[in-house]
Amino acid sequence: MERKLFCEISPFTYRLSMEKEILKRHIQDMVQKTQFAKERTKDCSPSMNIRE
Do residues 7 and 17 make contact, with C-beta atoms less than 8 angstroms apart? Predict the structure, then answer.
């Protein structure tokens, strides 16, 4: 049996992993001197494949 990634265990763990990465990105943006994005939005990018 091959190992699964944490996010592949269930929809809940997928959502948890996604929120963790969003939080990491926000923290990186606060620490950097220049902002990566001029505007923030709650909408997901069309290229994101979200399994719910």
Answer: yes
Alpha-carbon torsion angle 41, 42, 48, 52, nearest 10: -170
Which amino acid is located at 22 in the chain? Answer: I
Burial 3-13 (b: 16+ CB within 10 A, else e): eeeebeeeeee
pLDDT tens-digit map of 3-49: 989 889 999 999 999 999 989 988 888 888 776 667 766 666 655 55
pTM over 0.70: no
Helical ranges in 1-52 per DSSP H = 11-31
